[in-house]
Amino acid sequence: MLPLIFKIFKYIYQMDASKIIGIEHGNSIPGKEGEKAVINAYIAADGL
Fold first, then answer.
1. How far apart are CA 4 and CA 6, in angstroms?
2. Which residue from 15, 24, 27, 41 has the least number of CB within 10 angstroms?
3. pTM surpassing 0.70?
4. CB-based contacts of 21: which residues, under 8 Å, 6+ apart?
5. pLDDT tens digit string along 29-39?
6. Which H or E element spans position 34?
């Protein structure tokens, strides 16, 4: 899943990086592990 989201973020950034984008999502993993996975995904995506 991360490669697809990276492609989406890259596409949006190339179009116009001056806007703020919010993301709504559900966790694919329940409980604390799911929350940690979401945080780690945001950290990874922030490195773009």
1. 5
2. 24
3. no
4. 12
5. 899 999 898 88
6. helix 31-46
Compute the distance between CA of residue 43 and CA of residue 38 in angstroms, rounded to an integer. Answer: 9
Instruction: Name the strand (E) or helix (H) holding 30.
Output: none
Phi-psi region for residue 41, left (φ > 0), alpha (ψ -120 to 50) or beta?
alpha
Contact in structure between 6 and 15 (CB atoms under 8 Å):
no
User: What is the Cα–Cα distance from 33 to 12, expressed in whole angstroms?
Assistant: 29
Q: How far apart are CA 29 and CA 7, in angstroms?
A: 22
**For the chain, how big is the Rg over CA atoms in Å?**
12
